[in-house]
Amino acid sequence: MNGFPPRLPERVALIVVLIALASNAVFAQNNAPAYPNKPIRLLVPFAPGGGADVVMRPFVQRLTERLGQSIVYENRGGAGGVLAGETVARAAPDGYTLLAGAVSVMTVTGNLVKIPFDPAKDFAPITKVADVSSLLGARPGLAPRTLKEMVEYAKAAPGKLIWGISGIGSAGHLGMERFRMEQGIDVTRVIYKGAGPGTLALLSNEIDIMSANPGVFMPHIKAGRLRPVAVSSAQRIAILPDIPTYAEMGFPGYIHGSWYGLVAPANTPPAIINRLYDESIKVLKEPDILAAFARDGGVPVGNTPQGFAREIREEIAASAKIIRAANIKL
Fold it and tell me: Each residue of 69-81: pLDDT tens digit?
Protein backbone atom coordinates (compact mmCIF):
# COMPACT_ATOMS: atom_id res chain seq x y z
CA MET A 1 0.00 0.00 0.00
CA ASN A 2 1.24 3.52 -0.82
CA GLY A 3 2.83 5.35 2.09
CA PHE A 4 3.98 2.22 3.90
CA PRO A 5 7.56 1.00 3.95
CA PRO A 6 8.28 -1.93 1.59
CA ARG A 7 8.04 -5.46 2.90
CA LEU A 8 11.26 -7.27 3.74
CA PRO A 9 11.78 -8.94 0.33
CA GLU A 10 11.22 -5.56 -1.35
CA ARG A 11 13.72 -3.91 1.02
CA VAL A 12 16.28 -6.55 0.21
CA ALA A 13 15.72 -6.04 -3.50
CA LEU A 14 16.07 -2.28 -3.11
CA ILE A 15 19.33 -2.65 -1.17
CA VAL A 16 20.68 -5.00 -3.84
CA VAL A 17 19.87 -2.44 -6.56
CA LEU A 18 21.53 0.39 -4.63
CA ILE A 19 24.65 -1.70 -4.01
CA ALA A 20 24.79 -2.59 -7.69
CA LEU A 21 24.50 1.06 -8.74
CA ALA A 22 27.21 2.11 -6.30
CA SER A 23 29.46 -0.71 -7.46
CA ASN A 24 28.98 0.28 -11.08
CA ALA A 25 29.84 3.89 -10.27
CA VAL A 26 33.00 2.86 -8.43
CA PHE A 27 33.93 0.48 -11.26
CA ALA A 28 33.41 3.22 -13.86
CA GLN A 29 35.48 5.67 -11.83
CA ASN A 30 38.29 3.22 -11.23
CA ASN A 31 38.34 2.17 -14.88
CA ALA A 32 37.98 5.65 -16.41
CA PRO A 33 40.89 6.52 -18.70
CA ALA A 34 43.59 8.36 -16.81
CA TYR A 35 44.21 11.94 -17.93
CA PRO A 36 45.92 12.46 -20.24
CA ASN A 37 45.68 9.38 -22.43
CA LYS A 38 46.19 11.09 -25.80
CA PRO A 39 48.10 14.12 -27.13
CA ILE A 40 47.12 17.57 -25.84
CA ARG A 41 46.82 20.50 -28.23
CA LEU A 42 48.18 23.86 -27.05
CA LEU A 43 47.28 26.91 -29.14
CA VAL A 44 49.61 29.91 -28.90
CA PRO A 45 47.91 33.14 -30.10
CA PHE A 46 51.04 34.61 -31.68
CA ALA A 47 53.22 34.18 -34.74
CA PRO A 48 56.30 31.96 -34.29
CA GLY A 49 59.44 33.53 -32.84
CA GLY A 50 57.76 35.88 -30.38
CA GLY A 51 57.92 36.27 -26.64
CA ALA A 52 55.36 33.55 -26.01
CA ASP A 53 57.62 30.96 -27.63
CA VAL A 54 60.58 32.04 -25.50
CA VAL A 55 58.65 31.31 -22.31
CA MET A 56 56.20 28.61 -23.28
CA ARG A 57 58.31 26.24 -25.37
CA PRO A 58 60.72 25.17 -22.58
CA PHE A 59 57.85 25.06 -20.12
CA VAL A 60 55.72 22.88 -22.41
CA GLN A 61 58.62 20.54 -23.08
CA ARG A 62 59.01 19.80 -19.37
CA LEU A 63 55.24 19.63 -18.82
CA THR A 64 55.09 17.01 -21.56
CA GLU A 65 57.62 14.92 -19.67
CA ARG A 66 55.71 15.22 -16.40
CA LEU A 67 52.35 14.36 -17.94
CA GLY A 68 53.78 11.45 -19.91
CA GLN A 69 51.91 12.59 -22.98
CA SER A 70 52.88 14.79 -25.92
CA ILE A 71 51.67 18.38 -26.18
CA VAL A 72 51.23 19.61 -29.75
CA TYR A 73 52.47 23.22 -29.79
CA GLU A 74 50.59 25.25 -32.40
CA ASN A 75 51.26 28.93 -33.20
CA ARG A 76 48.10 30.63 -34.42
CA GLY A 77 48.62 34.38 -34.54
CA GLY A 78 46.45 37.16 -35.87
CA ALA A 79 43.28 39.05 -34.90
CA GLY A 80 44.70 39.96 -31.51
CA GLY A 81 44.57 36.35 -30.39
CA VAL A 82 40.89 35.92 -31.27
CA LEU A 83 41.43 33.01 -33.67
CA ALA A 84 43.23 30.88 -31.12
CA GLY A 85 41.03 32.07 -28.26
CA GLU A 86 37.80 31.20 -30.03
CA THR A 87 39.07 27.76 -30.99
CA VAL A 88 39.88 26.91 -27.39
CA ALA A 89 36.76 28.54 -25.93
CA ARG A 90 34.59 26.37 -28.20
CA ALA A 91 36.60 23.18 -27.74
CA ALA A 92 35.36 20.25 -25.72
CA PRO A 93 36.09 20.83 -21.99
CA ASP A 94 38.10 17.64 -21.69
CA GLY A 95 41.60 19.00 -21.11
CA TYR A 96 42.87 18.13 -24.58
CA THR A 97 42.71 21.65 -26.03
CA LEU A 98 44.48 24.39 -24.09
CA LEU A 99 45.42 28.02 -24.70
CA ALA A 100 48.65 29.82 -23.90
CA GLY A 101 46.78 32.75 -22.37
CA ALA A 102 48.50 36.12 -22.65
CA VAL A 103 47.80 39.77 -21.87
CA SER A 104 46.34 40.54 -25.29
CA VAL A 105 43.81 37.76 -25.76
CA MET A 106 42.88 37.46 -22.08
CA THR A 107 42.59 41.10 -20.99
CA VAL A 108 42.81 43.53 -23.93
CA THR A 109 41.24 42.46 -27.21
CA GLY A 110 37.75 42.19 -25.77
CA ASN A 111 37.97 45.86 -24.78
CA LEU A 112 38.84 46.82 -28.37
CA VAL A 113 36.21 44.98 -30.34
CA LYS A 114 33.38 42.53 -29.86
CA ILE A 115 34.84 39.04 -29.81
CA PRO A 116 33.07 35.66 -29.94
CA PHE A 117 34.00 34.68 -26.39
CA ASP A 118 34.26 36.16 -22.92
CA PRO A 119 37.80 35.78 -21.51
CA ALA A 120 36.51 36.03 -17.94
CA LYS A 121 33.78 33.42 -18.38
CA ASP A 122 34.65 31.09 -21.26
CA PHE A 123 37.95 29.80 -19.90
CA ALA A 124 39.03 27.85 -16.86
CA PRO A 125 42.34 29.40 -15.70
CA ILE A 126 45.00 26.91 -14.66
CA THR A 127 48.00 29.05 -13.68
CA LYS A 128 50.09 32.00 -14.77
CA VAL A 129 53.38 30.58 -15.95
CA ALA A 130 55.58 33.68 -15.92
CA ASP A 131 55.78 37.45 -15.77
CA VAL A 132 58.18 38.89 -18.34
CA SER A 133 59.71 42.35 -18.38
CA SER A 134 59.66 44.40 -21.57
CA LEU A 135 62.83 45.55 -23.31
CA LEU A 136 62.91 48.57 -25.60
CA GLY A 137 65.19 47.87 -28.54
CA ALA A 138 66.39 50.24 -31.26
CA ARG A 139 68.02 49.88 -34.65
CA PRO A 140 71.75 50.59 -34.25
CA GLY A 141 71.74 53.56 -36.62
CA LEU A 142 69.06 55.52 -34.80
CA ALA A 143 70.48 58.95 -33.88
CA PRO A 144 68.83 59.37 -30.46
CA ARG A 145 70.72 56.99 -28.20
CA THR A 146 68.99 57.18 -24.83
CA LEU A 147 65.31 57.02 -23.96
CA LYS A 148 65.37 60.65 -22.89
CA GLU A 149 66.87 61.65 -26.23
CA MET A 150 64.17 59.68 -28.04
CA VAL A 151 61.44 61.53 -26.15
CA GLU A 152 63.07 64.87 -27.00
CA TYR A 153 63.37 63.78 -30.64
CA ALA A 154 59.69 62.80 -30.78
CA LYS A 155 58.64 66.13 -29.29
CA ALA A 156 60.79 68.10 -31.74
CA ALA A 157 59.61 66.12 -34.78
CA PRO A 158 56.11 64.72 -34.13
CA GLY A 159 55.44 61.50 -35.98
CA LYS A 160 59.01 61.01 -37.18
CA LEU A 161 59.96 58.35 -34.64
CA ILE A 162 58.65 55.02 -35.96
CA TRP A 163 57.55 52.68 -33.16
CA GLY A 164 56.83 49.08 -34.07
CA ILE A 165 54.00 47.25 -32.34
CA SER A 166 53.76 43.46 -32.06
CA GLY A 167 50.01 43.38 -32.61
CA ILE A 168 47.13 45.70 -31.76
CA GLY A 169 46.26 45.28 -28.12
CA SER A 170 49.51 43.51 -27.28
CA ALA A 171 51.36 44.27 -24.06
CA GLY A 172 53.87 46.25 -26.09
CA HIS A 173 51.09 48.29 -27.68
CA LEU A 174 49.42 49.25 -24.41
CA GLY A 175 52.80 49.96 -22.85
CA MET A 176 53.74 52.24 -25.74
CA GLU A 177 50.42 54.10 -25.60
CA ARG A 178 50.74 54.60 -21.87
CA PHE A 179 54.29 55.95 -22.23
CA ARG A 180 53.34 58.14 -25.19
CA MET A 181 50.44 59.72 -23.31
CA GLU A 182 52.46 60.26 -20.14
CA GLN A 183 55.25 61.99 -22.09
CA GLY A 184 53.00 63.88 -24.49
CA ILE A 185 54.71 62.66 -27.65
CA ASP A 186 53.46 61.67 -31.10
CA VAL A 187 54.95 58.68 -32.92
CA THR A 188 54.21 56.74 -36.08
CA ARG A 189 52.93 53.25 -35.26
CA VAL A 190 53.54 50.24 -37.49
CA ILE A 191 51.57 47.12 -36.58
CA TYR A 192 52.88 43.56 -36.97
CA LYS A 193 51.34 40.16 -36.25
CA GLY A 194 53.80 39.40 -33.48
CA ALA A 195 57.19 40.16 -31.98
CA GLY A 196 58.91 37.87 -34.49
CA PRO A 197 57.84 39.80 -37.62
CA GLY A 198 58.33 43.08 -35.77
CA THR A 199 61.89 42.18 -34.85
CA LEU A 200 62.67 41.38 -38.49
CA ALA A 201 61.35 44.83 -39.41
CA LEU A 202 63.56 46.40 -36.75
CA LEU A 203 66.60 44.55 -38.07
CA SER A 204 65.73 45.72 -41.59
CA ASN A 205 65.55 49.38 -40.49
CA GLU A 206 61.85 49.58 -41.37
CA ILE A 207 61.11 50.88 -37.85
CA ASP A 208 63.16 52.73 -35.25
CA ILE A 209 62.21 51.10 -31.95
CA MET A 210 60.03 48.33 -30.55
CA SER A 211 59.35 46.70 -27.19
CA ALA A 212 59.47 42.92 -26.78
CA ASN A 213 60.44 40.23 -24.34
CA PRO A 214 64.21 40.33 -23.79
CA GLY A 215 64.59 36.76 -25.03
CA VAL A 216 63.31 37.75 -28.45
CA PHE A 217 65.99 40.42 -28.85
CA MET A 218 68.96 38.71 -27.19
CA PRO A 219 70.42 36.84 -30.21
CA HIS A 220 70.38 40.05 -32.23
CA ILE A 221 71.83 42.11 -29.36
CA LYS A 222 74.72 39.67 -29.06
CA ALA A 223 75.26 39.90 -32.82
CA GLY A 224 75.36 43.70 -32.65
CA ARG A 225 72.37 44.06 -34.95
CA LEU A 226 70.05 45.56 -32.34
CA ARG A 227 70.66 48.03 -29.52
CA PRO A 228 68.97 47.62 -26.11
CA VAL A 229 67.74 50.90 -24.63
CA ALA A 230 65.83 50.29 -21.38
CA VAL A 231 63.85 47.66 -19.46
CA SER A 232 60.41 48.34 -18.03
CA SER A 233 60.85 46.28 -14.87
CA ALA A 234 61.38 47.55 -11.34
CA GLN A 235 65.01 46.39 -11.36
CA ARG A 236 67.58 45.61 -14.01
CA ILE A 237 67.45 42.11 -15.41
CA ALA A 238 70.19 39.51 -15.04
CA ILE A 239 70.75 38.92 -18.75
CA LEU A 240 71.33 42.65 -19.40
CA PRO A 241 72.77 44.01 -16.15
CA ASP A 242 74.19 47.12 -17.85
CA ILE A 243 70.85 48.22 -19.35
CA PRO A 244 68.99 50.71 -17.12
CA THR A 245 65.34 50.69 -16.19
CA TYR A 246 62.92 53.36 -17.36
CA ALA A 247 63.07 54.83 -13.86
CA GLU A 248 66.85 55.12 -14.02
CA MET A 249 66.48 56.90 -17.34
CA GLY A 250 64.29 59.56 -15.75
CA PHE A 251 60.84 58.02 -16.09
CA PRO A 252 59.84 56.78 -12.61
CA GLY A 253 56.71 54.76 -12.08
CA TYR A 254 56.76 53.16 -15.51
CA ILE A 255 56.70 49.40 -14.90
CA HIS A 256 55.22 47.33 -17.67
CA GLY A 257 55.50 43.86 -19.12
CA SER A 258 53.68 40.81 -20.32
CA TRP A 259 52.70 37.45 -18.94
CA TYR A 260 51.85 33.97 -20.18
CA GLY A 261 49.74 31.27 -18.62
CA LEU A 262 47.62 28.19 -19.20
CA VAL A 263 43.85 28.19 -19.59
CA ALA A 264 41.35 25.53 -20.62
CA PRO A 265 37.78 25.77 -21.89
CA ALA A 266 35.20 26.63 -19.24
CA ASN A 267 33.61 23.65 -17.48
CA THR A 268 36.74 21.53 -17.76
CA PRO A 269 36.50 19.08 -14.84
CA PRO A 270 38.28 20.29 -11.67
CA ALA A 271 40.28 17.05 -11.52
CA ILE A 272 41.87 17.86 -14.88
CA ILE A 273 42.50 21.50 -13.95
CA ASN A 274 44.12 20.38 -10.69
CA ARG A 275 46.31 17.81 -12.47
CA LEU A 276 47.56 20.43 -14.93
CA TYR A 277 48.09 22.93 -12.12
CA ASP A 278 49.99 20.47 -9.90
CA GLU A 279 52.31 19.40 -12.70
CA SER A 280 52.83 23.00 -13.83
CA ILE A 281 53.92 24.01 -10.32
CA LYS A 282 56.45 21.19 -10.27
CA VAL A 283 57.83 22.32 -13.63
CA LEU A 284 58.15 25.92 -12.43
CA LYS A 285 60.35 24.78 -9.56
CA GLU A 286 62.86 22.95 -11.75
CA PRO A 287 66.29 24.64 -11.83
CA ASP A 288 66.65 24.49 -15.61
CA ILE A 289 63.28 26.21 -16.10
CA LEU A 290 64.21 28.91 -13.59
CA ALA A 291 67.47 29.43 -15.46
CA ALA A 292 65.72 29.50 -18.84
CA PHE A 293 63.25 32.12 -17.65
CA ALA A 294 66.01 34.22 -16.07
CA ARG A 295 67.93 34.23 -19.36
CA ASP A 296 64.88 35.72 -21.02
CA GLY A 297 63.91 38.22 -18.35
CA GLY A 298 61.08 36.09 -17.01
CA VAL A 299 60.00 35.33 -13.47
CA PRO A 300 57.97 32.15 -12.74
CA VAL A 301 54.63 32.72 -11.02
CA GLY A 302 52.50 29.59 -10.53
CA ASN A 303 49.47 31.17 -8.88
CA THR A 304 46.36 29.12 -8.15
CA PRO A 305 43.52 28.80 -10.67
CA GLN A 306 41.42 31.05 -8.42
CA GLY A 307 44.17 33.65 -8.09
CA PHE A 308 44.82 33.61 -11.83
CA ALA A 309 41.10 34.12 -12.55
CA ARG A 310 40.97 37.10 -10.19
CA GLU A 311 44.05 38.67 -11.78
CA ILE A 312 42.55 38.30 -15.27
CA ARG A 313 39.39 40.13 -14.20
CA GLU A 314 41.39 42.95 -12.64
CA GLU A 315 43.57 43.40 -15.74
CA ILE A 316 40.55 43.48 -18.04
CA ALA A 317 39.34 46.53 -16.11
CA ALA A 318 42.80 48.17 -16.10
CA SER A 319 43.36 47.74 -19.84
CA ALA A 320 39.93 49.21 -20.56
CA LYS A 321 41.04 52.47 -18.94
CA ILE A 322 44.18 52.74 -21.11
CA ILE A 323 42.27 51.90 -24.27
CA ARG A 324 39.64 54.56 -23.59
CA ALA A 325 42.26 57.18 -22.73
CA ALA A 326 44.36 56.45 -25.84
CA ASN A 327 41.31 55.95 -28.07
CA ILE A 328 42.79 52.70 -29.38
CA LYS A 329 40.70 51.08 -32.11
CA LEU A 330 41.11 48.11 -34.37
Answer: 999 999 988 776 8
